[in-house]
Amino acid sequence: MTSNQHVPSNEQWAELEMAARLAAKQAYAPYSKFSVGAAILDGNGKIHIGCNVENASYGLTNCAERTAVYAARANQGMQEVAAVCIYTPTDTPTPPCGACRQVLNEFGPTMRVRAICDGDEMIDTTLDLLLPGAFGPKNLQEPAA
């Protein structure tokens, strides 16, 4: 089963949520004070984490979702993402930003996306609903002769 078809079990969501909460504690957010943790479930069922890492040159800041994807690819050769869970210690959940949506699209255009927080709200959707008409690898294919 490919990640594009994989729906995480309740147990996997619980593991992703715990991992995202722990990852947020590693965030480096001295400027915004907005810590974010992300946990991705790859196509093989492994969990990878990331946190946001800010920089005094604000444009060089990296979000938690992208950190998780890049680390999973660099460390484990991850090829597909089945799901992502994003945690913010706020009253309302925060979905992935546009840049993160684009990076996530590269590895799982229809992945499950869940954003959680300290409040009662949750976002539970799919990436293709968050990023309709996404640009991706298929757009770079050579035209048929």
Automatic annotation (TrEMBL):
Reactions this protein catalyses: 2'-deoxycytidine + H2O + H(+) = 2'-deoxyuridine + NH4(+); cytidine + H2O + H(+) = uridine + NH4(+)
Active site, renumbered: 65 (proton donor)
GO molecular function, one term: identical protein binding
Domain of life: Bacteria
A GO CC term assigned to this protein in UniProt: cytosol
Record CDD domains: cytidine_deaminase (cd01283)
Binding site for Zn(2+): 63, 97, 100
Binding site for substrate: 52-58
All residue ranges annotated as the CMP/dCMP-type deaminase domain in the record: 11-138
Enzyme Commission number(s) of this protein: 3.5.4.5
A family per Pfam: dCMP_cyt_deam_1
Family under the similarity heading: Belongs to the cytidine and deoxycytidylate deaminase family.
Protein name as catalogued: Cytidine deaminase
Organism, scientific name: Chromobacterium amazonense
